Amino acid sequence: MSFISISKTALAVLLAVGSVNACPSGTRHSNNNNINNTAAAVKPVGAAAVATSPEIVPPSGGGYSNGGGMHATTYFAGYHAKRSKAFTVEQMPWSKYTDVKYAFAETTANGTLDMHKSAPEELPKFVKAAHAAGVKAQLAIGGWSGSIHFGSNVGDAKNRTAFVKTCLDTVKQYDLDGLDFDWEYPGRQGLGCNAVGPNDTLNFMAFLQELRREQPKPLLLSAAVSLFPYNNKDGQRSANGELSKMAELLDYSIIVGYDIFGAWAGTGGPNAPLAFSCDSKRNNQGGIKEGIEAWVGAGYPKEKLVLGFGAYGHGFTVENKEAFGPDGALLAYPKNSGQRRQGSTWDDDPLVDDCGGAQPASGTFTVWSMVQEGKFLDEAGNPAPGIAHGFDNCSQTPFLYDNATQWWVSYDNAQSIKAKGGYLTSNKLAGFAMWEAGGDFKNLTVDAIRSAVGLPKA
């Protein structure tokens, strides 16, 4: 029996609990991570609201050993393998990475996994190619639209045991080396109809504990986590070592340091700011440095944190008169007109999401599309002729503007990636994670981060 459901599973819970920023569907997920946001006002939904506080006792061993080396990881989006301008398994630059995650398997109401959106027939090819290249193959579970049932799947002991079985059967079925959990977000609403409860974070740790206990071999287990720590049972951001046991149960966690500003914001702003406290009047959303410091405060050692960044940028519609300051310089935080337009080919048209809500176009541009479609960049990653550009020294991010199309785009270039790599190495983080491999152009982005952290070009 396959534990990956190919047909779409009907949703058991479709209760919206407040509005959230629409996720850019062409990216890994939305961070939706305003620094003042907590879950105090979120009502429990569905089975996630169980009043349990499971005791978490991390195993004495059983994790995957990377030999102390740096994790160079990325995601392969299965749903981009079959669409227009596809990125296929055959195009993967395996030599650039130590482990790669196939995205996504989505959670379901009955505790199985659903891959019908992500070309499940490609997963065996992906695993075979990864292993042939000496790369660890993981399956990413969840994502922006795939986290609806995470809360109920781990919400009580019976459901946790069933979900552990689903996960381990899937590992066996596809000969995977591990799993990557992308729950968006424990104790907080994400898409709009997710099962949410105050014990989500504790229940997730109890699930990880049982998964470690039952694993037949040491698995590579990771999680892609929000910029700031998961909420505790009181609906507040975890602190004072509250997540130390989670750190012990996972091999590493990826700090999703992107989607900080997007087309939903009132102004343009950095997609992936390295820091924000140096300019908090204009950026009240957050930055990678401050996020990592908060996770360390919540009990995570730096050597278990991976810096996540994107091979794409967020585009904003900015009128010509709003794009430049009195001195003629391109503004780092220009007024956003609010018009939502499709960015690259991979940025979906407006659609109805899995909660029944309207999701507008997000205006995202992959690095590939910034070169090939938008013509914003040349093939070396530099601004093309006629494209205005600037660099913000606080967030350490570049931005550009096309006067003809009124696209203002925040992205990452060699300079900003060098800054991120310098921070990563000086703080002895566990490595880097790029969303996603298919968004790059001739390996510009991955080669830049490898160079920045002292790895060979490969």
What do these coordinates show?
It is a single chain. By secondary structure, this protein is an alpha/beta fold. It has a single domain (about 5-50, about 55-310, about 410-450), classed as TIM Barrel, CATH 3.20.20.80. Helix content is about 20%, strand content about 20%. It is built from 10 helices and 17 strands. It has helices spanning about 125-130, 150-155, 155-175, 200-215, 245-250, 290-295, 320-325, 365-370, 415-425, 445-450; strands at about 5, 70-75, 100-105, 115, 135-140, 180, 220-225, 250-255, 305-310, 310-315, 350, 360, 365, 390, 395-400, 405-410, 430-435. The strands form 3 sheets. An 8-stranded parallel beta barrel has the order 2-3-5-6-7-8-9-17, surrounded by 4 helices. Strands 13-10-16-15-14 form a 5-stranded antiparallel beta sheet. α3 crosses α4 (about 200-215) and α9 packs parallel to α10. The radius of gyration is 21 Å and the shape is globular. The protein starts with a strand and ends in a 6-residue tail after the last helix. The relative contact order is 0.15.
How do the strands and helices of this protein lay out in sequence?
Blueprint: E1 4-5, E2 71-77, E3 99-107, E4 113-114, H1 123-132, E5 136-142, H2 150-153, H3 157-174, E6 178-182, H4 200-214, E7 220-225, H5 244-249, E8 252-256, H6 288-297, E9 305-310, E10 312-317, H7 320-323, E11 351-352, E12 358-359, E13 364-366, H8 367-372, E14 388-392, E15 397-402, E16 407-410, H9 414-426, E17 431-435, H10 444-452
Parallel strand pairs: 1-4, 2-3, 2-17, 3-5, 5-6, 6-7, 7-8, 8-9, 9-17
Antiparallel strand pairs: 3-4, 10-13, 10-16, 11-12, 14-15, 15-16
Helix pairs in contact: 3-4, 9-10
